[in-house]
Amino acid sequence: MNPAFVDAWRQQIDWCDRGGSPVTARVLEAALGDWLAGGTARELIPDWNGDPWSDAVSLRVAGALHSLVLDGSDPELAAQYPPLATGFDPVAGPAAVRRALIVHRERIAEYL
């Protein structure tokens, strides 16, 4: 495991929280949790040879997932975002992120 990768991801989560983007922070937490557990996120990003900060890896994942919401490709994930939700559900939200990573794997890979 690349500690710089995880540190950069966690810093981005913190910045999203402090910057008023709590849903993005929770989405990133769920995706990082999947990565740490060896899930689909880890398969998509087995290692990152570049600088995770300047390469904006976590934001690429967040952008890929958000694109699924914006174009209606993933209603289950969309249910975690405003205006459909007032907050990210601590149980259903991470499950929706993990499922989206699996179901939309190829599309998410394009963002990476």
Structure write-up:
This protein is mainly alpha-helical. The chain has one domain. About 65% of the residues lie in helices and about 0% in strands. It has helices at about 5-20, 20-35, 40-45, 55-70, 75-80, 90-105, 105-110. Helix 2 crosses helix 6 (about 90-105). The longest helix has 16 residues, at about 5-20. It is globular.
What composes the largest sheet?
A: none
List segments where confidence is low: pLDDT < 50 over at least 5 consecutive residues: none
**Separate helix tally:** 7
The tally of domains stands at 1
SS elements, strand count: 0
Distance between the termini: 18 Å
Sum this structure up briefly.
The chain is mainly alpha-helical and 112 residues long. The chain has 7 helices and no strands.
Q: What key attributes describe this structure?
A:
112 residues, 65% helix
Topology:
Elements: H1 3-18, H2 22-36, H3 40-44, H4 57-70, H5 75-78, H6 92-103, H7 105-111
